[in-house]
Amino acid sequence: MVNLLIADTDLYDAKRLVNIIVKKNREIRLVDIVTETDEAMNTIKEEFPDVIIVSHDLYNIPKIIKEDFYNPIVVHSNKIKSPNDMKNIIEKINSEKTEKPIPEKPNGKNNLNDLRKNVWEMLLKLNFNPKMRGTGYLADSVAIAYLNRHINLTNNLSKDLYPRVANKNSSTGESVKWDIIKAINAMKKYNLDNYPELLSTFFDINTEIKTTPKFFVTNLMNLL
C-alpha cells in the first residue's frame, strides 16, 4: 500500500487528482488533502506519506522536509494527467524496494512511521496528553533513537538526539527538550492523581522511577 498526500491550493484540481488516482489505483491510500503548507507539514509528521503531490503554490514543501529522516517522492500536480502516471510512480516505489532492500533492524522494524505509531500508542497508554507538542517530540525521539543505534544515549540527549527531532519539526533542540519535559510532567501529575502505579506496572519496575526524558527514550525504545 502506498500512502499519498495531495497538497493543492485549488480544491477543484485536488478533486481531479483524486478522480484520476484513487479510483484507478487500488494500491493507493489517500491520507489527506490539504491546501496550506502548515496543514501539509502536520499531516506529514503524522502519516509520513510515500508520495506527495503538490501544486505550484505549495512547492516549498519539499524544501522543508529533511531528507535525513524522510525522503518521499514529490510530484508536481500538473504531471498527473492519467491513472498510468500514478501507476508508474507506484511501480518505481515497488522497484526500489525490491532492488534496494532496507537492512532490517531487530524485529524487522525499520520504518520511522511505523515505529512512531507504535511509540505513540505506548505514550497514550501511559496517559501522555496527545495535544501537547512534547508528546509528539518524545515519539519522534524514541523512533529516531531506535533507527540510529549509534546515538549515545548515555550522553546528554541535547547534543545529538534533540537536534535531529528539531530538524524534523522545524524547531530548536532547546524547545524540543523543554516541550518533552512539560509533557512528562503533565503525564506524571495526571497519573499521580489517578493511576499512581501505572508507570511501575507498565515498565515492570519495582524501584523508584526517575521520570526523565532519558528514562522514557531508553525504556520505550527497548519495548519496540
What this model shows, in words?
This protein has helices at 11-21, 37-47, 61-64, 83-99, 112-125, 133-147, 157-168, 173-194, 198-203, 213-223; strands at residues 2-7, 28-34, 51-54, 73-76. The two termini are 23 Å apart. It has 2 domains: 2-99, Rossmann fold (3-Layer(aba) Sandwich), CATH 3.40.50.2300; 106-223, Arc Repressor Mutant, subunit A. By secondary structure, it is an alpha/beta fold. The model is unreliable at 97-108 (pLDDT under 50). The protein is built from 10 helices and 4 strands. Helices cover 55% and strands 9% of the residues. The longest helix is centred in the last third of the chain and has 22 residues, at 173-194. It has a 4-stranded parallel beta sheet with strand order 2-1-3-4, sandwiched between helices. The radius of gyration is 20 Å and the shape is elongated.
Q: What integer value in Å does the Rg equal?
A: 20 Å
- What is the subunit organization of this protein? single chain
Q: How is the largest sheet built, in terms of strand order?
A: 2-1-3-4
The CATH fourth-level homologous superfamily of the largest domain: Winged helix-like DNA-binding domain superfamily/Winged helix DNA-binding domain
Helix content: 40-55%
The biggest sheet amounts to:
4 strands, parallel
Count of strand segments: 4
Short description:
This protein is of the alpha/beta class and 224 residues long.
For the structure shown, list the relevant keywords.
Rossmann fold; 2 domains; alpha/beta; Arc Repressor Mutant, subunit A; 4-stranded parallel sheet; 4 strands; 55% helix; elongated; 9% strand; 224 residues
